[in-house]
Amino acid sequence: MVDTKVTLCGIELDNPVIPASGTFGYGYEFAELYDINILGTFSFKGTTSEPRFGNPTPRIAECTAGMINSVGLQNPGVDKVISEELPKLRNCFHKKVMANVGGFSIDEYVKTASKLDNCDCVGWLEINISCPNVHGGGMSFGTSPLAAAEVTRAVKKAVKKPVIIKLSPNVTDIAAIAEACEGEGADGISLINTLLGMRINLRTRKPVIANRKGGFSGEAVFPVALRMVNDVAERVHIPVVGIGGVSSAENVLEMMMAGATAVEVGAANLINPYACRDIINDLPSAMEKYKINSLREIIGAING
Ligand code: SIN
Fold first, then answer.
1. What total number of domains does the chain contain?
2. Is 119 a catalytic residue?
3. Is residue 135 in some structural domain?
4. What's this model's pTM, rounded to 2 decimal places?
5. Res. 134 pLDDT band, cuts 50 70 90
6. By residue range, what is the domain housing residue 109?
7. How many CB atoms lie within 10 A of CB 8?
């Protein structure tokens, strides 16, 4: 019997597979399809202090082996998430969940994170400083080591639960930003959020997406994400969560060998709602094929 367990910031997961924020709603929608308790955990839809309608449509553009989104952090706001979404989630998911927090100012990150920190079902706070689809917040905190450090410091001071900072790939040195977050007490780093991208409609001669540009994700980004996960894992001493184009059990193993302790699956859920279930089911046979007894032993294996 192979061992798929890993430990993320002090909490043991049955397996490292985590649906990424924005691709799995608040979980209960997927619980109609399969028992979501098989997941390691999942990261729920990015939540801000106030409700957000999101960006104008169209917000999605199809691409080869991927897609561009410009959703714009649409969500009902933290108070409604706590009063309406989390109770529904608790009925069908009995593990700790990862709360994904968006924001436009340090104060907003702190306020939203503090409220979610008080929820029993929340195990980790994933602070999104990397949304490419909003102005005046989101990615602007994730493109400077100083600003990333400032958010981390403020949130860490305000909460008790482990803080994982979600980073943008749209920078020159992502590992320097990860180090800045680690320096202010971040408990983990997750990466990558989407790569800035664009499509143009040849008939209208206009961008496909109303907001012109958006975040590119999907299988095509996997090698880029893997490289960045490795860059960060080699520079920090806290757990790294690998994200970007993961669509198979083999991709999970690669991410872990590059240095990830756990792995988020994003766009694949939008193509196949059973993607995470299938990856979890396939993990034991993939481990046997590559002679892996325990996933813990392969974290960062390429450097070993
Ligand atoms: C969005 O809501 O625009 C996507 C979230 C993100 O990329 O961080």
1. 1
2. no
3. yes
4. 0.98
5. confident
6. 6-298
7. 24
